[in-house]
Amino acid sequence: METRQKFADKFDWGLAFLLFLFxxxxxxxxxxxxxxxxxxxxxxxxxxxxWYVVGFCIIGFALLFDxxxxxxLAWYAYGFGMLLLILLFxxxxxxxxxxxxxxxxxxxxxxxxxxxxxxxKTFLILTLGRVISIHHEVTVRKTLQTDFQLLLKIGGITxxxxxxxxxxxxxxxGLVIIAIMTGMILVSGITxxxxxxxxxxxxxxxxxxxxxxxxxxxxxxxxxGVKQYQFGRIYSxxxxxxxxxxxxYHLVNSLKAIGSGQIFGKGFQDREVYIPENHTDFVFSVIxxxxxxxxxxxxISLFFLLIYHLTKTSLDTKEPFNAYVCAGVISMITFxxxxxxxxxxxxxxxxxxxxxFISYGGSSLMGNMLAIGLVFSxxxxxxxxxxxxxxx
Length: 392
What we know:
Layout: H1 2-10, H2 13-33, H3 44-62, H4 67-90, E1 106-107, E2 113-114, H5 116-138, H6 144-167, H7 171-186, H8 192-215, H9 217-223, H10 232-238, H11 249-261, H12 283-316, H13 320-344, H14 362-386, H15 388-391
Antiparallel strand pairs: 1-2
């Protein structure tokens, strides 16, 4: 009885309840999305429920290890993730077929498909958290040189998985990897004297390239060998109605779906706008059409509560490693949400990034649950540490 009481006191019930709410939202949205004619008799709700059960088992497994053990295991996890990415790159088509122009999945027969990059994101967060925390432990005097060394470590560790992910090619996941690195650099303690010039230069370069794509594509074609058709996603993002039969098809229909939902939506399964694969990347369009501004606001509020909860955990923890890992998880989820919702309403270009905990997808859900499992572990053992004096 005492052991059960200790577990009940230490377990993060608030975070578990948030995940349960996400499961409810996901089930409702997917059950409606799968009524589209293209899916036949496939029951994605049942499959999503199964992956949620697996995800909660992953969280339970994560609670078996405390943060110090994760810190020691970080490099092993990173090596395992890199091994999977390398094997995926070398695997024949029979094991890793190309889907939608990308070789990102292992086919595991009746078990379905496995996307290694979804787990590599969490492994990268663990490894960067270890490297940053140990760097500060061994650095007696902080200087510009030591900050540059830390920046090079973070960049080098991130570059390897990023390179293999971009070779698949998977731009969406590559952007998530960059977002994780960016978020962890911002909280790493590296001086702003280094961060501001570097990020300003990157922003200037990105803005320049975007301007050239829009106003002078012939320059990129002539001097860099880039073909104008390769900018189809940018053009269809800026002017989707001129590309509504090709690259702009999903965006135009997404805008129609969300706009037609108005304030209260059309009701459960009363959709009128057809969007292919709307149970995955465009599940927010289903929510916007059927439940309107109110339903979409509820979903966004749930993500706000999740980010708030993760941020509070990061601030409450007494270990730098825990705080860095929480920052990485926050960066990953925040970017996912901002990019996915943004692409459905034309704020950002379309990329293959799912909406966390709501879009259908086993690998995505398990990868996110693994990341959340780390936060559960940190909250669980942090409380144990706080009350240790009472237990003695």
